[in-house]
Design brief:
Elements lengths: L8 E4 L2 E4 L2 E2 H8 L3 E5 H14 L5 E6 L6 H9 L3 E4 L2 H9 L7 E3 L6 H9 L4 E4 L2 H13 L4 E8 L21 E2 H9 L7 E7 L10 H19 L6 E3 L16 H14 L3 E4 L3 H4 L3 E13 L2 E6 L8 H5 L5 E3 L8 E7 L8 E9 L6 E4 L21 E5 L2 E6 L4 H5 L8
Parallel strand pairs: 4-20, 5-6, 5-13, 6-7, 7-8, 8-9, 9-10, 9-11, 11-12, 12-13, 15-17
Antiparallel strand pairs: 1-2, 2-3, 4-14, 14-15, 14-19, 16-19, 17-18, 20-21
Helix pairs in contact: 5-6, 8-9
The chain binds pyridoxal-5'-phosphate.
The site of pyridoxal-5'-phosphate has 16 residues, from helix 10.
């Protein structure tokens, strides 16, 4: 068995620990399925990122959409991070987590009028605009509120991020951003957006990008626009590189943050402005696991199945992206044989699987398994499909653990419904 471990999730006497806490001990208290996060992973990852760009004046804006638990956001905020928020809900969470509004960026291809108004009311650092119509709306709302809106235009650099098509965002065929030519026109159109101050230029070309080349290409393209604007009298204060850095889920090749810094820093150094980064997955993915209990094991013909109590409603990445997450036992029995098995959930969909054709020790009903690297786009994408309750979240710090969100109750699920007589 190939066990994926790190100093944050590691085996001690064949038993999985998160930092210095036994995973089984946590599960005995909160039940399964449950998300468990390592706080020290988040902290160390953030520091690794910011140290890699030591020579460059920069700010990290944690992309809250990857893991929006208020305690996770707070972990980054306490380290000095800003937050990139995608919606009114994420904005509220960031504020609850103690983020300074002047360190918040409002992002998103389809912001509502209310979200824009809220962004201006709270005086956020900047709003990113992704279309000409949105710029017009921001301008109008700011005028009504007698404010000047600080805005960055998200440019679509038309670069192939070479990632899964659903999370590739920087090609002109994708819905995100404004094409280079139009963006230049809008930035320069001084008389049109009287209530807008253009403070930055932004891009985000996709997620789970595992090679550096798309980043260097896109940063280079964006820097050319920056200089062209500068020459024509538009001086931007912020240059936002976005997020998208890929992480290791399985056996894929990725690059280190130091290599990433080495590749793009020479371009960034030439710019006379403050650099923004918006990592999400990089900061959180490998810092979390989803623990499940085995409900049944069975064999259909030659095929083995492990039926766990976690399903696609708890973690949807395998189902929608065909994403690989290592799945491994919480307790290793090295004397047992290994089998190849599909590991599936209880939801009524063939697409409900955690992993297919996985090599794993022969397992028994009642034992626990861990879905690794589940700290990003895990809980935040959970749903109530099959009227299942969303799982709890636990944050581990050294030898202590904290339930940072409890398991939903059925009252919770039925809160908004009542029987009517029609
Ligand atoms: C999703 C997103 C991010 C974070 O992406 P990761 O791949 O998780 O790093 C950053 N910026 C924007 C605009 C996003 O939409």
């Amino acid at each position: 068995m190939n066990l994926f471990d790190s100093s944050y999730f590691t085996y001690k006497s064949d038993e999985l620990f998160c930092e210095n806490v036994s995973v089984k001990k946590i599960i005995q208290e909160v039940g399964t399925p449950a998300y468990i996060y390592s706080k020290n992973f988040f902290i160390d990852r953030y520091k690794e990122f910011t140290e890699a760009f030591e020579e460059i004046p920069h700010t990290i804006f944690f992309a809250a959409k990857s893991n929006f638990n208020i305690n996770v956001i707070k972990t980054f905020v306490d380290l000095g991070s800003g937050v990139d928020v995608n919606s009114e809900g994420e904005l509220k969470r960031a504020l609850l987590a103690g983020a300074d509004p002047r360190k918040l960026i409002l992002t998103g291809v389809g912001k509502t009028l209310n979200e824009i108004r809220l962004g201006l009311q709270k005086d956020l650092l900047m709003i990113k605009a992704e279309s000409e119509e949105e710029l017009e709306l921001i301008n109008t709302i700011a005028g009504e509120m007698k404010k000047v809106a600080r805005v960055a235009i998200r440019v679509n650099p038309d670069v192939d991020a070479q990632t899964h098509p659903y999370i590739s965002t920087g090609l002109s065929e994708n819905k995100f951003g404004i094409d280079t030519k139009s963006a230049l026109g809008l930035f320069k159109d001084k008389n049109r957006f009287k209530n807008i101050l253009f403070t930055g230029i932004d891009m985000h070309i996709g997620s789970q990008i595992t090679s550096i080349q798309p980043f260097t290409e896109a940063v280079e393209k964006l820097s050319q626009i920056y200089f062209e604007l500068k020459d024509s009298g538009v001086h931007l204060k912020h240059f936002d590189v976005g997020g998208g850095i890929g992480v290791k889920y399985g056996y894929e090749e990725t690059f280190s943050i130091q290599d990433y810094a080495k590749a793009i820093s020479p371009i960034l150094k030439k710019l006379d402005c403050h650099i923004f980064f918006e990592p999400g997955r990089f900061l959180t993915a490998n810092g979390g696991i989803l623990v499940a209990q085995i409900l049944y094991t069975k064999k259909n013909g030659e095929k083995n199945f492990i039926i766990a109590d976690a399903a696609m409603n708890d973690i949807i990445r395998p189902s929608i992206y065909g994403a690989h997450h290592h799945i491994q036992p919480v307790e290793v029995h090295s004397d047992r044989a290994e089998i190849i098995s599909d590991i599936v959930g209880p939801v009524c969909e063939t697409g409900d699987f955690l992993g297919r054709k996985r090599k794993i020790q022969e397992s028994k009903r009642g034992e626990y398994i861990a879905v690794m690297s589940a700290g990003a786009y895990g809980m935040v994408m959970a749903s109530n499909y099959n009227a299942r309750r969303k799982p709890p979240e636990v944050l581990v710090a050294n030898d202590k653990f904290y339930v940072i969100r409890s398991r939903e109750t059925y009252d919770h699920l039925l809160f908004d419904e009542k029987i009517i007589n029609s």
